[in-house]
Design a protein that fits this description.
alpha+beta, FAD/NAD-bd_sf
Length: 41
Amino acid sequence: MEYDATAIGSGHTGMPLVFKLVEFGEKVAFIERVHLTKSNA
């Protein structure tokens, strides 16, 4: 697949940036790391 932008991690501005890019019609790959523990596995 081809994307216009790639966002790695949400951080302080990651999610708002992704939403704004999508609003402008950009195709965005959003990559977030999740640490698996017993409580969320």
